[in-house]
Specification:
66% of the residues lie in helices and 9% in strands. The chain is mostly helical and 134 residues long. The chain folds into 2 domains: 93 residues, Winged helix-like DNA-binding domain superfamily/Winged helix DNA-binding domain (Arc Repressor Mutant, subunit A, Orthogonal Bundle), CATH 1.10.10; 41 residues. The chain has a 3-stranded antiparallel beta sheet. The longest helix is centred in the last third of the chain and has 24 residues. It is elongated and about 60 Å long. The chain starts with 8 loop residues before the first helix and ends with a helix. The mean pLDDT is 89.
């Protein structure tokens, strides 16, 4: 698993904006976050700079003073690492109790159930292929 920078909850909000539509200028990020948070532009710029320092975000310096920022960490990679971290912290890396708890408590549509079945079928086939190779 690739090593990802530690991203705070506040920094994650900036990442979500960038993941939604990269690249963006600082002003575009600020405009989006000001509509959903009570953060000041200086705070948002600080968060952007922290993400650049952590190498979670990079930028292009265009003509003049315009910087466009883009994520270096994919949303999928981040989600994968965070999910495994959550699993380890709360369930000791045992997936079954988490899944059972989720399925009992969550209201699932037939579409959700079909998607879960598809994923489980793929996993089952993957395991069967590995067993045949042994």
């Amino acid at each position: 698993m690739e090593k990802l920078p530690k991203i705070s909850e506040a920094e994650l909000e900036v990442m979500k904006v960038l993941w939604a539509r990269p690249p963006q200028t600082a002003n575009e990020i600020i405009e989006k976050l000001e509509s959903t948070t009570d953060w000041k532009p200086k705070t948002i710029r600080t968060l952007i700079n922290r993400l650049v320092q952590k190498e979670a975000v990079s930028y292009h310096h265009d003509k003049g003073r315009l910087y466009t920022y883009f994520p270096l960490v994919s949303q999928e990679s981040y989600l994968q690492v965070e999910t495994k971290s959550l699993l380890k912290r709360f369930y000791g890396a045992a997936f079954k109790p988490l899944l059972v708890n989720f399925l009992k408590e969550e209201k699932l549509s037939s579409e959700d159930i079909n998607e879960l079945k598809r994923i489980l079928d793929e996993k089952s086939k993957e395991i069967q292929r590995k067993d045949k190779k042994k």
